[in-house]
Structure formats: structure tokens, C-alpha cells
User: What shape does this take?
Amino acid sequence: GAGVSQSPSNKVTEKGKDVELRCDPISGHTALYWYRQSLGQGLEFLIYFQGNSAPDKSGLPSDRFSAERTGGSVSTLTIQRTQQEDSAVYLCASSLGGNLRGTQYFGPGTRLTVL
Amino acid sequence: AQKVTQAQTEISVVEKEDVTLDCVYETRDTTYYLFWYKQPPSGELVFLIRRNSFDEQNEISGRYSWNFQKSTSSFNFTITASQVVDSAVYFCALSGSQGGSEKLVFGKGMKLTVNP
Assistant: This one.
């Protein structure tokens, strides 16, 4: 009964570098979400994957952000050319998904610091 | 647009006091879910409760209770006989069917400090 796992737990990078954040959802959960938590903006939705459907990318703040989900399981959030304002905790959640059936369970997050 | 408002930003109480956390929401959806999550100092968001828009029955779970009132668009959370371990940031959240996504819209959170 493992929960959502995320790696790395902490990431420090230099401005302009690319970073990849990983999320392993709960086994059997078809829906996967990425959120960002920062002091100024609170908890913000970034992107949502549900099964084989096209992802909802409406929360991605710029085209420097992208995410993919391979094989309906693991997801990677990529931030290109990082900026200092990207510094935040990136949270992943998963749920049983579809038709509002699923409660979202969150991972421990990745704390990203852009110097 | 969906919106969740937690008017209180920070509350400090003494152990054994009761405390109520307010949550007011806005949505045009007729079907929606409301949630409370707890974020202790360790940082992980912990799910507490989910309530759907068709179920206004209040709920009690141990020292926790929730009061859902559609007439006032509120979903308040009460901790009875608070304990130091209740110290955390509490988030109210809303999930609807707008746009077909189940994304959560969160309030700004309320930091509860329970002092011994």
C-alpha cells in the first residue's frame, strides 16, 4: 500500500538550467495531477492526466513547463530554462479518477530552489 | 469560475479549546466535491474528508466535525478539544466538473497553532 512518491525531495539548480521532477502514483490510480505550492500563490493546479485522454494543461504557467505520463503510470514534470520565480514545492497527486470518483492523495513534494 | 475562500489566515489556541475553520466556496457546477486537507510541518498534504454537493449531512469523526451548508456555500471544520498535534495548515478545496477536469481549487489555507 505505497502512497504517491516523488523524487527528488529537494532540487537546487541554477537559473537557466532544465530540471525534471518525477512522480510515481498509487498503483491502480488512473488520474494524476501536478500542483505547485509557493508562498505568494498558494496551491495552484498545473496539469492533469486521466487515462489515455488528452491532458488538461490549463494550469501550466508558461511554455517552459511540460509534463508527460508514460504507460499510464509514472509522470515527469520538466521545467526548461528555470527562473527564480519557479522556486516552489511541486506536489503530485493521484486518484482513482473519472467522473469525480476519486479523492486525490498527495506525495511529499519536490522542493525546487532556483538560484 | 470556482473559488474557495478561507478568511482566517492564522489562529492560535490553547490545548483543549475548540476551534472552527471557515470555508466559503463559489461554483456554477451543480455537481461538485468539497475537501479538507491538513498540511503538518512535515509538509505532506493529508486528506481529511470529502463531501459531495448532494450530501449536506454533517459528519463527525472523533474530534473532527464538518458542517456543510449549501444555502450559505460553506463547509466549516471544527476541531473539538484541540491537541498540539493538530497544529498544521488546513486547506479547504473544491473540485467540480467545469472543463471536464477534476482539478482541485484550494483556499489560501489557515495556519492553526495549538499551544500546550
